[in-house]
Amino acid sequence: MENFVVQRKSPQELSPENIETVKKLCLAQGFGAHARPDDISHLYSGPPFMGGVAVIGVLDGEMIGHVVAFKYGDSTIAGVQYITLFIVEKPQRGKGYGLKIWNAMWETLDKNCSISLDAVTNMVSRYERMGLQPEWTNREYIIPVSAIMQKYKMSENSRNILVKPLNEFGLEKVVLYDTLICGIPRKDFLEKWTTLPASHTWVATNESGNVVGYIVMRQGVDKEDMLVGPLLSDSIQIAQKLLYIAAEATDAQKSAERLRMTMPVCESENPNATHTIENDFGTKAILETVRMYNKKPNYCLNKMFAICSPGFG
User: Fold this and answer.
1) Which of 3, 215, 246, 281 has the fewest CB neighbours in a 10 Å radius?
2) What is the four-CA torsion angle of 268, 273, 276, 277, rounded to 10 degrees?
3) What is the pLDDT of residues 285-311, one digit of tens each?
4) Contact in structure between 259 and 246 (CB atoms under 8 Å)
5) In sequence order, which residues have a C-beta less than 8 Å from that of residue 37 and are 6 or more positions away?
6) β-strand partners of 259
């Protein structure tokens, strides 16, 4: 491995060539359904993004691997460092390069902050040995737009809820609402996430003008799906209304045939969340991952109906 080196950088310090390699690695690994090339370009660009750090592996002058940790939380507040997009080029696996990339990342992390990731099930035990513990299971679903529109027509339970596009409402109250549910202030992240290319955000308010939910939707890579997340709300009825609004907009624009969303599940905290989806649409999860933390935030899982993405927390 004498020609192999690891380089630590902020995401914004990666060269355009590095970022193009990250995109190619994600697509080759099958991450493209969650981490679109446009998402990567947008989130890695601009001013320093949440104190994040990227580690790349370079072999004989060519980038062959990558991992990044984004920090969710204001710079003055201990937040969550979310590790994601850990990929090594397939021909170079099994040679120890991935371990060197991972160790360089792990040594860089601020251990005073919470550390988090979404693990595939066969990797959970390995991360447990590093001090991370499972908190919930993520289940990913694909639901036809037509089925959502038929099932979730405006119900009496949500008739007094007003839904507006984010650009008619503003981000400040949404950030406060998100912080109450997620347990960390994600202002920097939400400013980026709600302005992703080909994305839409709607905010639900009650009669007093208080935020009671919001949903973000963005175009999938294959154009067949719209990706939903986050979807946070005070009740399942409001979540259903927001899903209906998203499905209705998708149908009107003919932009996709299905909505794809990843729901957090913990039987002790939100046992009805995925049961409702599975019962309403007769669908089963297509993917399961496990959210892990070394120090969990004070989140409110029974108001989380979809996470942002298995690639971005």
Assistant:
1) 3
2) -140
3) 999 999 999 988 888 999 999 999 887
4) yes
5) 23, 26, 27, 221
6) 143, 226
